[in-house]
Specification:
1 helix, six-stranded mixed β-sheet, 22 strands, elongated, five-stranded mixed β-sheet, 269 residues
Amino acid sequence: MLFHLFFVLLLTFQTHAIQGYGGRSSGAEFTTSFGYSGAGTNNQNNVSGWPYFVEHNISRNVTAAVGQTAFLHCRVEQLGDKAVSWIRKRDLHILTAGILTYTSDQRFQVIRPDKSENWTLQIKFPQERDSGIYECQVNTEPKMSLSYNLNVVEARARIFGPADIYVKTGSVLTLTCLMSQGPHDLGTVAWYHGSHPVLASPPGSNDVALEPRVAVDTEWSDALTSRLKITHAKPSDSGNYSCVPTVADSASVNVHVINGFPLGTYTLV
């Protein structure tokens, strides 16, 4: 009988202690010594309504050429009443919060179409000093963040071989231009002979062979590679040749078509 009375008093005491802690519910999960458990109303436990990042088809390692606008894409679903901010990690500088810019550097701007889940950080005219880690943050508790690595490079083209190239009349000359730095959306390459663009010969223009006398082949692999091929070189082919990428510094060589070298093929790769 006494044991039963003690049990009732102990249960009553623990119930009052839980209800009266701090004068309010703590919102945290609690467990009594008798094995009862219950969950609070913290929204973080509501998985279906909690913001989350969408990483599918979004690159977080971005390369841009100096002067070419860079974009860092962040997509947040179920944002609700939370806000998205962009932070520069090296100095913890807040660049944008919501659609507002919080830096005097007007090159930085957030792009967010109306009612879109995309929050894109745009960096105009980036320089090499802008390289580093940037974070897309959501002001949840605890904070949510997603890191992006921006690599800004000075894209330069180079032509293999010496600055002056000597070939014999009638030889085959191939100049190879390589641009190994920069993103793959830099475009293509144009070749110039002096101030005039080099144009591929139309079919049938070569009386000696079926292939065109002048041909340009440009391809992407791990780098942008463009080859200018001139068959049956003539003295008029002498001069300065420049490889000019769409967005990069150009490279040039001087070609001298002369007599005195064995007839052959000169390929600079």
